[in-house]
Each structure stands twice: as C-alpha cells, then as structure tokens.
Amino acid sequence: MWILVIEDEPAMGDILRRGLEEENHTVTLVRDGIEGLRAAETCEIDAIVLDVMLPELSGIELARILRSTGRQMPILMLTARDAAADIVKGLDAGADDYLTKPFAFDVLLARLRALTRRAARPTARVLHASGLVLDPDVRQVRRGDRLLDLTLTEFRLLEFLMRRAGRVCARTAIIDGVWGLEQDVKGNTVDAFIRLLRAKIDEPYGPSAIETVRGFGYILRDEDR
Ligand code: CA
C-alpha cells in the first residue's frame, strides 16, 4: 500500500516511516498540514496516518477538507493521550479510526489493515430486496419500472429495513436508526409510518414486502437477494 504519513515530530515520523517500509508499504512522509493536503490531493494514496497537532493546518481541519472534497481514503488519526475532545472532533471530521500516543506499532499495523480491508470492499450502494430497488445517492425507490414517491421519513425507514432485509428489526432499533436517539418517538409512530409505507410499496403490487412480527417489530422479505 501507499501510505501518506503526516507527522511533524521528526522522531515519530521516522519511526512510522521505517516501520511501515519494513512491512513493504510505500511511505510518503510530510511534516505539516498544507504539504499533507497537497500530497493527499495529488497522489493515489491508499491510507493516511494523520497527526492531529500539526503546523499550518491541523489534522482535524485537513480531514474535514479531504472529506468535503470527496476523498474517501481511510484516515487513521494519531492523538495525544487523553485528548478526548480531539478524538471526537477527528472522527466527526471524517477520520475512520484513531490511536492515542504512545502506541504499539503492531496495533497501528493492525488498525491500518482493518481500515484498508473495509475500504476495499465498499458496501453495495444500490439496495435490492422484495422487488424493490433503492438508491441512497439519488434518493430514489423503484418497484419494477415504477418510481415510488416517498417522504424523507418513509425513505429512511425503508432504507433501514432494506439494509437489514431478511432480519427482524425491533421497533426500538428502528426508532434509533431512523429518528435518532434524541427524538422522543414511540412504537406506535413506527407502526403509523409502516402503514404509510405499505400503502405505497405493497398495496398496489400484491405480495407484502414488509411483515409484522407481532409484539416486536418488522421484517422486510429478502426474496431477490
Ligand atoms: Ca504533532
């Protein structure tokens, strides 16, 4: 893999470079955020090891810029010990994982392996189940060649069920996934939205895609996967 290391402390940068090269990675080492951004934008990088405290542009700002311009490479962030605020900010900015310094080098290698494994197997963007085709990128749902007209909440609910097609989803899990933990949504709201959704995706077409699991939740049938 080609790994971009952005680290301003010379000793740490050298340890990272040497260790990664020993594992047969190609390493580009830069010492500040601006140089790091340039390298990330111009090179075909497989992963970035990104220090948070950097001159010119912090690791957090850099991650935010990369994500806002559509760069998807895995980012492993390095933070000072106990810098909980940095960790939260870094993950929010688009880092995929973090390590606190000091860290064991084999842990860093394992984290990088895990991140790049995940990146190499992107989840299918377009979802198929029960004769339905849902494309999250363009917010469209089709059944056969008919485009279905769903509200935002109906769409999110259907996407939630389709990502778990063939598995039972508890009402509580649906509330957390569709409305979020901070919303005060009750089980009967879920039932009401399921009714709305069924009226659009099922009733005109015959066989029911969504089944009720009495007293628990719902399951979207998984016929065409
Ligand atoms: Ca630093």
Features:
225 residues, alpha/beta, Rossmann fold, elongated, 2 domains, five-stranded parallel beta sheet, binds calcium ion
Please, could you describe this protein's structure?
The protein is an alpha/beta fold. It folds into two domains: 117 residues, Rossmann fold, CATH 3.40.50.2300; 94 residues, Orthogonal Bundle (Arc Repressor Mutant, subunit A). The chain has eight helices and twelve strands. The strands form three sheets. A five-stranded parallel β-sheet has the order 2-1-3-4-5, with helices on both faces. It has a four-stranded antiparallel β-sheet with strand order 6-7-8-9, with helices on one face. A three-stranded antiparallel β-sheet has the order 10-12-11. Strand 7 and strand 8 form a beta hairpin. The longest helix has 16 residues. The radius of gyration is 22 Å and the shape is elongated. The two termini are 33 Å apart. Calcium ion binds next to loops.
